[in-house]
Amino acid sequence: MRKHQISFAIATIIAAGSLSTVQAATWQAGDWELGLGGNINTFYTVTTCDAGKLGAGGGTMAGLACADLDTGTAATDNTHSVSNGLLPASLNFSAKTKQNGYDLAGNINVYYGMASQDANGLPGDALDFSTVDARQVFMTFGNEKMGTVKAGRDFGLFGFDPIINDMSLSGTGATFASAGPGHTTLGGLGYGYVYTDRLSQINWTSPKKNGLEATVGVFNPMDGVESSGKATRDGGQPGIHGKLSYDWDKGNGIKGKVSATAISQTVQLANGDKPSIQGMDVFAKVDVNKASFAGSYYQGEGMDTLGLGGIIFPGFNSTTGAAEKSKGYMAQATYKVGKTKLGLNLSESKQTNLTKVKNNKVTLGAYHSLTDNLTLIGEASSQTSDLDGVGKDESGSVAVGAMLSF
């Protein structure tokens, strides 16, 4: 079934794994400094799935919260799960040294799912295993004069700042396939920003000067999706992405960051056309003492609201070669009361050309630091998808859990 295929495709790409390589423990081994860290997180989540509120048939972003991957249908009653949040559990290893005036480093970060899955990546039965995924395997080298070169597999630049600053990075946000949870939930993916994805890439980042920094690089191109259901072919060129950012800290409790990114890659359709997947986003965050405000906006072509190449809906029309157009925003405010951070996140995305749909999400969260390394988390989310000419899907969830970082 089409819904089953969509759900399986999303299950294979979604995962905003731990986007940080900060290590809690370091030790010397000759000239090398080695580091080891990671996180373990688990949530009990109740997702509201009502057949009467799945007017679009459950095939939208909001409907996918209720997707049952085993049957390829949507659950029509509340579902209960114990699984990861937006982050999988992780084990992150690093090694760095200085040789001949160059800073050298390597990172290998492996991520683990909590819930069992079978050999096809679908919800598992008794005695099945959880998933393991090496999402970040890269090296860096450079110095203060030349900047830094990164080569390997890591998260892309487009969409990175919105997800790394989403308060649900340590929580759940919107759920995905809650009837048989996979590697992660969605957070705000598909609602306010597009998944940054894991790309094989080579980048150069300029030396930071007065808070200003630039990155540009190439990445191995990704397949898109045509309206016929076929995957696009390699367009014969590498993908290109870039980022410009500026951060500041006035030293009086006020600090912030702004950034802009762009991405482009050529694909080839079955009819011979060679259109491009392309996008841009802007991001801003300001911290004022105990309060923090963040916002982002993106727009793209050849991508849907979730994935670079179109996952839920196709990125390109197979006959005309026309590209899907999408756009969206995220707005967030948090405030710290003692050791507890309270937050509100509003997200919206739209597709406006091939498949007209609007997705909205609201998340309320509370994040209490019981210790420096253990955070207790509670979130409630509500999401709606309005598919033009078809109907509206609605779903929601309440999640409570904990994250241990080390």
Automatic annotation (TrEMBL):
UniProt keyword annotation of DNA damage present: no
Pfam families membership: Porin_4
Gene3D superfamilies (UniProt xref): Porin
InterPro entries membership: Gram_neg_porin_domain (IPR033900), Porin_dom_sf (IPR023614)
Signal peptide span: 1-24
UniProt entry keywords in alphabetical sequence: Signal
Residues covered by the Porin domain: 26-383
Coiled coil: none
Statement: the UniProt record of this protein carries the keyword Metal-binding: no
Name of the featured protein: Porin
Protein's organism: Thiothrix lacustris
Highest classification ranks of the organism: Bacteria, Pseudomonadati, Pseudomonadota, Gammaproteobacteria, Thiotrichales
